[in-house]
Each structure stands twice: as structure tokens, then as C-alpha cells.
Design a protein that fits this description.
Blueprint lengths: L8 H9 L9 H7 L16 H12 L16 H22 L10 H11 L5 H7 L3 H15 L4 H4 L7 H14 L9 H11 L15 H15 L4 H13 L2 H13 L4 H32 L4 H27 L14
Helix pairs in contact: 1-3, 2-4, 3-4, 3-11, 4-15, 5-14, 5-15, 6-13, 7-10, 9-14, 10-14, 11-15, 12-14, 12-15, 13-14
């Protein structure tokens, strides 16, 4: 991937420094986002802060496959990590405001609490819109947004594997094996999604559309990286995955129907069709075998599991609201709509 374009003073300063090797970043950058600089209200909402979200995405990218021409030693450069930590605290603060406090949860009852949380979610009907009436241009836009995640699908959640043991680890590995196609390249979900993009005439290189998507899309992806990179958030990462799997089957059925309505062949709809079947099974594994076992093994972290699931649902809701609001008035949901084919 090439380094994303900056969207504000901090991301611009970091983007300017990265090509020249690890150096101490100016202390003034830390002061820009230091806790207490902004009032604890919507003016400090990191979820819609373009500068902060592209900065975090840039930092997290160093832990995945890196950036073209950027020294890998930047991954753990102390001044960059310090700056990232300040940005992450702002991000976490916005997430807590969005979800509110976790309810009282008995460890044995966690799977039911997750099921109730998912059932109560009344997010915007994005999948119904894509299934029934979205245009080909709108479906392309949706796929461009989702490519930021699906072209590296499962990688963030895989970071939890070495931090777990026993039945929790086994359950997570069972889910991840399917995500990686059982070790067969052609069956990897990221490769199936690439086939969908190819039929839609989109650039299938990972990260090709990072500069085109807004903060709402970046936040969805940064959330997984935040949870995945911090051992203290391992419970939240599991909760996130559980919510993702528990809300996936029906929307993917609608996405497949929408793409077929638009003329998509089996090779283009296979990604969505695969998730209809796989995630119906993953839902039970994630809720009971993975999160249920984790709650029994680490009862003090049960609230973290709920928080991760709640964050997943909340940020997906904000993402869907962004797309539907823009489309409702005839606008593109992208920052650079000219790049979308007619």
C-alpha cells in the first residue's frame, strides 16, 4: 500500500516524517490531542475526526503489511507510539459515550446477553436498500467502502489467537480457518471479495480506496485494529467478532440478491453467498463456544466482551447512516465521488 493522503495537521506531519526513517516526532503533535485539550462532548468526537482516523489507520497499517517505501522500524518508534496512544484515548472516549456503560452480566448468561443486544439493534436498513433498490453505482460505492476491511478479512481478529487458550482459542481458530479458506488461496474470503470487485470494475489492490472513504468507514476498521493490537482488549475483540458473525447472515443474503438483481454472475456473488452459510454456523460458535467459554475463564472481562459487541453494532450503524443519508439526497457516499464508474 502507498501511504494515505493526510487530512489534517497531525496526519500531515506524520506523513511528511515517515519517508525519512524513524525520528522523534515533535512534542507539539502530542499536545494537539492530549487528554483535556477538548471538552468531553461532541466537539471531541473522534469518530468523525478525519485527521485522527486517517492517522490511526496509518499507524495501524505499520502492523499489517506496512507501507511502500516506509522503514518498518517505524512500527514501534516511541514518539509515534506515544502520539498514537493519545489518539486512541480520544477514540476510546468517543466509543464509551456511544455505547454507554455495560449492563450487569452473569458470566454464564453472556451468550444470551449478546443475542439480546443483537436482536435489539435497529440500525438503518442498508442491506435491504442494497438488496432491493440500490443502483450499480451505489453498490460499487458500498464495495469500495467495504474493501478496506474485506481485502484483509480476519487479520485483526487473528491477533487474539496467541492471547487465548483452551476452548476459547479452539473456537476462534475454527472460525478463522473458514475465513482463510481452509488454507486454500482461491477460497479465502479476501480472494472471493476480490472477485466481486473485479466484476464491478474496481481496483482490487488492497487499500486502493482508502483516500476515498470518510472517517466513518475508517473508524469501523480502526476499531478492530485497536482491539486487536492491545491485549487488554482481547475480550472486546471477541465480542466484536461475535456481533459481526451474529449479524452477518441475513445482510449477506440481501447483498447477494442485490448483486444478482444488477446482473452479477455467480463468481461475483460467491463472497456474499459464502457468508450466508458460513456465518450461520459461526454465529453459534462465536456466542457460545468462544465468548461463553471466555466469560467462564475470565469473568472479570465479561463487560469488555459486551463493549466490543456494542461498539461493532454502533459503528456499523453510523457507517450505514452515512451511506443512506448521502444516497437519499442523490449524493455520493465517497469523499472523491469522481472515481466511481458511472
Amino acid at each position: 500500500m502507498t501511504l494515505p493522503e493526510p487530512r489534517g495537521p497531525v496526519s500531515a506531519a506524520v506523513a511528511a516524517a515517515l519517508p525519512y526513517g524513524p525520528v522523534d516526532l515533535p512534542a507539539s503533535l502530542v499536545a494537539h490531542w492530549r487528554d483535556g485539550d477538548c471538552p468531553d462532548d461532541v466537539s471531541d468526537d473522534a469518530l468523525c475526526d478525519e485527521d485522527l482516523q486517517i492517522f490511526l489507520f496509518t499507524c495501524y497499517g505499520l502492523h499489517y503489511q506496512g507501507w511502500a517505501g516506509i522503514d518498518d522500524r517505524w512500527e514501534w518508534e516511541p514518539s509515534l507510539i506515544e502520539l498514537r496512544a493519545v489518539a486512541e484515548r480520544r477514540f476510546e472516549r468517543s466509543l464509551w459515550r456511544l455505547t454507554g456503560p455495560a449492563p450487569s452480566i452473569v458470566p454464564a448468561g453472556l451468550p444470551r446477553v449478546l443475542a439480546d443486544l443483537v436482536a435489539a439493534d435497529d440500525g438503518p436498513p442498508l442491506s435491504a436498500e442494497l438488496g432491493r433498490s440500490a443502483s450499480l453505482t451505489q453498490f460499487r460505492e458500498f464495495v469500495m467502502h467495504r474493501s478496506i476491511y474485506h481485502l484483509r478479512e480476519a487479520d485483526s481478529h487473528t491477533w487474539a489467537i496467541p492471547r487465548l487458550s483452551g476452548p476459547v482459542k479452539a473456537a476462534l481458530v475454527e472460525i478463522q480457518i473458514d475465513e482463510y479458506g481452509g488454507g486454500q488461496l482461491a477460497r479465502m474470503h479476501s480472494e472471493l471479495f476480490r472477485a466481486t470487485m473485479d466484476w464491478l470494475g474496481l481496483d482490487t489492490r488492497y487499500g486502493a480506496y482508502v483516500d476515498d472513504v470518510p472517517a466513518a468507514t475508517l473508524a469501523v476498521n480502526n476499531l478492530m485494529s485497536l482491539f486487536g493490537l492491545h491485549r487488554r482488549w482481547r475480550g472486546a475483540l471477541l465480542g466484536h467478532l461475535a456481533a459481526f458473525e451474529m449479524t452477518s447472515s441475513l445482510p449477506n443474503r440481501r447483498y447477494a440478491e442485490g448483486l444478482r438483481r444488477l446482473g452479477g454472475p455467480p463468481s461475483a456473488t460467491r463472497f456474499f453467498d459464502e457468508h450466508v452459510e458460513a456465518d450461520a454456523v459461526h454465529e453459534q460458535i462465536a456466542a457460545y463456544d468462544m465468548c461463553g467459554s471466555f466469560a467462564v475463564a475470565e469473568p472479570d472481562a465479561v463487560a469488555d466482551v459486551w463493549f466490543g459487541a456494542a461498539c461493532c453494532l454502533a459503528l456499523d450503524r453510523l457507517f450505514a447512516e452515512h451511506l443512506l443519508t448521502r444516497w437519499a439526497v442523490g449524493d455520493s457516499s465517497l469523499r472523491v465521488p469522481a472515481l466511481v464508474a458511472p
